[in-house]
Amino acid sequence: MRAGKWYGFFVFVCALCLFLSFPAVAKASQESFPKVFEVSGPAEVFEPSSRHWAPLEKKMILKKDSKIRTGDKGSIHIVFDDQLNTAVRLARNSQVSFPKPSASFSISLEKGRLFVIREEKASGFFEIHSRHIEIKMGLGGLILDASKEGILVRVYGGPVFFKPASGSGSGRTESIGDGFKFFRGGWRRVKGLDRMARMVYQDYIDWQPWARQWYEMKDDFNAERLEKEMDW
Question: SS3 of 167, please?
Answer without folding.
Answer: coil
